[in-house]
Amino acid sequence: MTSSKVLIAMGVALLVAVPLKAQQAGAGMGQQAAAMPESYRQVQLSALALQRRMLLSMADSMPERLYRDRVTPIQRDFAQQIEHAAGSVPMVVSMVLHVPPPPHGDSAAYLNSRQGLKGFINASYDWAESSLRNQSAADRAQTVDLFGARIPGWQLWDELHQHSMWTAGQIVANFRKNGMAPPGFGFF
Predict the structure, then answer these.
(1) Using CA atoms, how far apart are residues 158 and 78, in angstroms rounded to an integer?
(2) Per-residue model confidence as pLDDT tens digits over 105-115
């Protein structure tokens, strides 16, 4: 295995192991949140960058004429799925951490054009990265309520990463329906 592949494997292992270890350490501590090393913030910033790149590559790879196409009648269309994956991050962060959300923008523009959709993705992730960078250590340690689950503030970012990856995975069906391969996936 090359040294770059070893580093990638180690990074992926950290994405899983560090939050799991902190959750295990915090088990049984009641309201006291498990401590998370400050260095873990950079792992979370890297995850946000990965999400942004993946969604931008999807927006670039899908022909604009198929942005409003659905795989099934009850599913969100392609652009709405991208909107949900990218837009959930600032929406949930602002709601859970009680910070002002970014402007939502004009959905008629960002759901119907490549330029608009990419602008929406970038605005969502610019706001999220800034919010993560500015989250104080005290706020990261404080317990927050995520739809009824009590978690440390730092863990919110990991939960949102899971949601974005899960939602983006569903978008692959839009490519397959149209006989297209989805854009390549890369960890870093």
Answers:
(1) 24
(2) 889 899 999 99
